[in-house]
Amino acid sequence: MLNRRAMLHGFVGAGAAGGALLADMNRTAKAQEGEPVHVGSALPMSGFAAADGIEFKNGLELAAAEINAAGGILGRPIELHIEDTKDQGADLVSQAMQRLVDRYNTPAIINGYNLGTNMIEMDVAADNDIIMMHYNTLISHNEKFKTDPERYYGSFQGDPPEFWYGPGCLNFLKTLSEGGKWTAPNKKIAIIPSANEYSIVIANAIRDKAAEYGFEVSLFETVPFPTNQWGPTLAKLRQDPPAAIIVTHFLPQDLAQFMVQFLTQPINSLVYMQYGPSLPAFREIGGASINGVIYSTVIGCLPDEFSKAYRESYRAKFGPNSAYITGSQTYDGLWMWAIAAAIAGDPGEPFDKEQVGKVAAVMRRNVYRGVNGTYRADPAGQSAYCYPTQVADPSLGMPHQFLQHQDHTTDPKLIAPALYATDAFLLPPWIK
């Protein structure tokens, strides 16, 4: 497994111990002297997902600064270029990516997520022979890759696909109940997706596997995307209270409104939400009403010793309320690609399939321990493996993290999986 700093240091001239000091002295100068490597990113810098877009940009900027301080890629500094995908969709995203290639000759594009694209990003990467890493968290990436691995050789998904949220959530609830930490009043679960591919795939996976984990689905209701009017859905939940409410909609402002409206007449149900509670807006809008909410993510900065320097650097640079748990995605993505480009001897350029193919081959082979956990490319889909529901070895899969907001004035607490947990689950204050 590669350590990112040691690897890049080695490729900027630090070999034997006797040369290490000289390499440290010359590292920044070398990065400044080389021809820049232009790296692109197509991000939602405006529109409903701008909160995430800002953090994705932050993660790229921090990674680029660190890589350049370490000597760049074989002495060449990274120069970032961002294109706004606004409200996203196939046309806006593909156009943004193509502009990055046409204007800056980018050999790599590192994206966060973009919605409603039908994974057209993979076609842009293939048509231009560039590396494209993204965090869409979609099983459709894997499915598209399988249709033509040779064409889509340069497309990588930096986290496990959303399908794994389904069995992971059910396993978490079952473990919580069997461990005596939560006494489920019944076996019912209510599933509330919103009208987008990501939410629906997760909700369907939970619905289809519920019986295997001993649960029955009492309500499956799709709400608009976006939405902040939860009254009709809450009325149905209050009429037939389930043991757990599973909301797979993910916009933080909408989820905060769910909790505000839920607590006007709460029921004895656990509340699990999808991803959105990781963003500062959830806490800022929801305030004390979010205390007790559980959420999960298959990609997010771990609160461990390994990521401590990153967490501190991120908030020192971008402010105490910045969401390092989100910026960590593109941060790791840029580091992974940079190391692979150094090992391959050159980052390549658009339409240089031979050299870009070498970079892709390294990315497939490397097992990378980043601040989000371990990335290993699944050869059948070129996305990360998920621990523990897909692989049992934590050194070969990215942890599916479960976190709980226990005090809205502090960061959420990591409560599962057990090998990574820093805190214990607390019964939500509304459950009597």
CATH architecture of the largest domain: 3-Layer(aba) Sandwich
Helical segment count = 14
Could you describe the largest sheet, including whether it forms a barrel?
7 strands, mixed
Shape: globular
Give the C-alpha Rg: 22 Å
Strand order, sheet with most strands: 7-6-8-9-10-15-16
Q: Which CATH first-tier class of the largest domain would you pick? A: Alpha Beta
The averaged pLDDT comes out at 92
CATH homolog superfamily of the largest domain: Response regulator
Count of discrete structural domains: 2
Report on this model:
- By secondary structure, this protein is of the alpha/beta class.
- It has two domains: 4-160 and 302-387, Rossmann fold (3-Layer(aba) Sandwich), CATH 3.40.50.2300; 163-297 and 400-416, Response regulator (Rossmann fold, 3-Layer(aba) Sandwich), CATH 3.40.50.2300.
- It has 14 helices and 16 strands.
- It has helices spanning 4-10, 17-33, 50-69, 90-104, 120-128, 139-147, 165-178, 197-209, 231-239, 252-262, 280-286, 308-318, 324-344, 353-365, and strands spanning 37-43, 78-84, 108-110, 131-134, 155-157, 188-192, 216-220, 244-247, 270-274, 294-297, 367-370, 373-376, 386-387, 398-399, 401-404, 413-416.
- The strands form four sheets. Strands 7-6-8-9-10-15-16 form a seven-stranded mixed beta sheet, with helices on both faces. A five-stranded parallel beta sheet has the order 2-1-3-4-5. Strands 11-12 form a two-stranded antiparallel sheet.
- Helix 5 links the parallel strand 3 (108-110) and strand 4 (131-134).
- The longest helix has 21 residues, at 324-344.
- Residues 1-29 have low confidence and may be disordered.
